[in-house]
Design a protein that fits this description.
Length: about 270
């Protein structure tokens, strides 16, 4: 009789869990490497290392992904910077931005503040063309599976503002779409189609992501916390589409580049504003 009771309670718990709104939080750390060759021979190795040290807060960050079965919000963690170690003001997140995804509405909204102005970049979510593989590995207590795809990188390359142009690069080559390879490791043990940054669409939460020069790794997961998660859809800022936003930012970065080059490649250019 006791074993029957235990079995019944176990079945009841599983049924109850299945009916609950599945939600959670995942914390990620990211690291991005920088192509220092873009600066040519005008900087010594010591100067390049000094720049890398100054940009550490820009290249190494932590994020929190909150998710339910139908929504998610990916946000950079706010942290105080050590005086004198902050990176350049251009392109640096101030911890207020986020990426919101709604599987129900098939909508992605990127909340970003750039050049002292706030934008809401609105995009329709199209199912990513992931290639699923049978390759697995362990991340913490989770078995993760490898998925890959190649996509066009539509984001702004802020590093090109201060980099030297490759004289061998023709204008036609410059205008070609920039393609990047993406590798994701996801766990079906966490049954949500969510992931860090702009990535999603796999049969399980993405715990590790590699794209371009960036790697993101999940360091902590909290599932079904006692306090219910409320995900807020961004609503403050100028709504723009991705192409319109890129055009606006390109105009501002071209302006910054002219200032930068006009000062003999010095770092003393003023902060761009609208």
């Amino acid at each position: 009789m006791k074993s029957i009771t235990i079995l019944f309670l176990a079945f009841f718990s599983i049924a109850t869990f299945a009916q609950k709104d599945f939600q959670g939080k995942a914390m990620y750390m990211s690291k991005t490497t920088m192509d220092m060759s873009r600066f040519g021979n005008e900087m010594t190795e010591v100067q390049k290392q000094q720049m890398m040290n100054r940009m550490k807060s820009f290249l190494e960050k932590t994020y929190t992904l909150t998710f339910t079965k139908t929504e998610s919000s990916f946000k950079e963690d706010v942290k105080l910077e050590t005086p004198g170690t902050n990176g350049p003001m251009w392109g640096r997140s101030n911890g207020q931005g986020s990426i919101y995804k709604s599987l129900k509405d098939k909508e992605m909204i990127e909340d970003v503040e750039m050049f002292s102005k706030r934008f809401l970049i609105v995009e329709k979510m199209e199912q990513p063309q992931w290639q699923l593989t049978s390759e697995t590995k362990q991340i913490g207590n989770y078995t993760v599976y490898k998925a890959t795809m190649t996509i066009e990188d539509k984001t702004i390359d802020f590093g090109s503002i201060f980099g030297r142009r490759n004289n061998n690069q023709t204008d036609d080559k410059k205008d070609e779409p920039k393609m990047i390879d993406v590798v994701a490791w996801y766990s079906p043990q966490i049954p949500v189609s969510a992931g860090p940054d702009r990535y999603w669409g796999l049969p399980g939460l993405i715990l590790e992501l590699n794209f371009g020069r960036t790697t993101m790794l999940c360091t902590e997961i909290v599932l079904n916390p006692e306090q219910k998660i409320e995900i807020q859809k961004p609503n403050k800022g100028d709504k723009v589409e991705r192409e319109e936003y890129n055009k606006i930012i390109k105009e501002k970065t071209d302006e910054l580049k002219e200032r930068f080059q006009g000062r003999g490649n010095g770092m003393g250019g003023g902060r761009g504003r609208f």
